[in-house]
Design a protein that fits this description.
mainly alpha
């Protein structure tokens, strides 16, 4: 929207009693600096929040990996015991077969 005589100009509000500017340029600049600082604080807060969330996820992942490693170790132990038991059963079965052949 173009207003006649206002192209490229910022018009300050005037006090209706004194006729002075209600908002001065230093106040406008201070407002913009505050807005920029507030934006920076919000961005920093979001980064901190994301980092904390990522740390929580990393911790959960580490716990899951540790549980998996424990499960893998216990499974390997069970497999080794089972293999030992099967080998012993084969040995017994071979002994029983040998006894049965000698009886015949």
């Amino acid at each position: 929207m173009n207003l006649p005589g206002l192209a490229g100009q910022v018009v300050a509000m005037k006090n209706p009693i004194t006729g002075e500017d209600v908002v001065t340029w230093p106040e406008v600049m201070a407002f913009f600096v505050l807005v920029i600082l507030l934006g920076g604080l919000i961005a920093a807060g979001l980064d901190i929040w994301k980092t904390k969330r990522q740390i929580g996820q990393d911790t959960a992942l580490r716990e899951l990996v540790n549980r998996y490693e424990q499960l893998a170790a216990s499974t390997m132990d069970a497999q080794q015991r089972t293999a030992t038991d099967v080998a012993e059963l084969r040995s017994r079965a071979a002994s029983i077969e040998q006894i049965l052949r000698s009886v015949d």
